[in-house]
Amino acid sequence: MKKELSFALNYALNKGFQIHPDAFKILENVDVKKLEKIIKEIVREKTKQKLFQISQDDLEIYLGIKDDPTMQSEVKVISDPTSRITTGEGVKGYNALFSSRFNKLKRIISDRPESKMLKSIASVKTTKSEDDIYVCGLVTTRNTERNITKLILEDPSGSFEGIVFDNELQKTADTLLTDQFVMARISFGKNSGLIIKDLILPDIPDQATNKSETEAYAVFLSDLHIGSKYFMEEEFSDFVSWLSSPDPVARKIRFVLIGGDMLDGVGIYPNQNKELVCQTIQEQLKKAEDLIDRIPKNIKIVIMPGNHDPGRRALPQPAIPKKYNSGLWERENVIMVGNPAVVLLNGVKVTMFHGQSIDDIVKTTPGLSYDKPTNVMKHLLRARHLSPIYGSQTPIAPEMEDLLVIEDVPDIFHVGHVHRAQLDMYKGILLVNSGSWQKQTPFQASVGMTPNPGIAIMVNLKTFQVFHQNYNSNLDNILQS
Ligand code: D5M
Ligand code: FE
Ligand code: ZN
Questions:
Q1: How confident is the model over 261-292, as pLDDT tens digits?
Q2: CA-nearest residue, atom 16 of ligand 1
């Protein structure tokens, strides 16, 4: 008998354990370097349970050869744009899109008491009321000059310009995004001007968090940029290997979510080919597939596209099309969804969105920046919309239905894109920006963007406890919260 094996057996026997002969057979075939760690972990776990027998099952579950039957791993896709994308045409399409946005958000805000007093914008012009009235609409213009903010709001009946004088309210007004939905309390000024007295956002109601009944962990990833020469292949590969290690956390991982930019893509930015190690989508997908194949099969993998992945550029994006790689679609443990998507992981509701709109929002909103992406995510939740601004950098398709309204209140909001891993909470929702696995690119350096790549964020879906693993050797590279 190898000395490592006899050490492991004696260790367990001295702690009062019996080892079943079938378990012994498995131990004989385990890598001797790992034996000590494995036996100590199992002894510790089973001592806690006061069960002093090591069976074949224990080892198989521990080594990931067999699923722990008490652990659930159910993925339900409850919203995916892939089959709902219709692409309306031109002006008609955009009218339909904005009318869908208005109607959906009006329905969401109708849960608020003030909405009982809502009037149409057209009626504001004809009534001369002494009392304040409430209207709602999409912000078409926001303008601040000499401490006065002017807003133009539009609903299906018409539009009006209102003025915000109050300093505190101006702070809210200044963070409103173009095409965002808002409810306003207005009063009539002396010179028949309309004064905005209050601004009410759809926001998130108080609600209980859904939790998994059994302990199962989800890993949140995004922005791998496979194919780029800056993809941290070695670090990512180490992370994938860890998933099949005997580490007690690794053994409980049942879900891996990839929130977009899995690939670096081709022709995404000028001269990209000079920064690629895989020049075609097929090659990039092959590399992705090889990595995904090394993830244990009892882990469900949800793959959503970002702006670098193939499909279409405009939001909402369909899932990465089958025609590029049917392999991923055929894997039993892989679920391909579009961007954005809502999935239930053992009943825990996760809204996944790549995060393209963050670029437009940080540019136009005072107080928001790239290094605190979860603040932008809070902004989106308050607006109940994933990408309000139309006509800026983020392309939005003229769908008949606005699929970017946040209709479902999630338990976890998963976003990527800005390559800064960060955690936060907002009204009971866990906010995860999953960072990236791509080193700082020359472009990012030129604009002063400092990513913190190589961090894997994991959440225990039963307790919502969060863990992370940092594969980056640079000590300044840390997870923000
Ligand atoms: O984007 C990563 C981040 O870098 C995201 O915040 C956008 C920004 N970025 C990247 N390339 C550009 C260009 N060419 N212009 C403006 N902003 C850019 P990713 O989607 O991973 O490329
Ligand atoms: Fe990215
Ligand atoms: Zn991106």
A1: 999 999 999 999 999 999 999 999 999 999 99
A2: 359
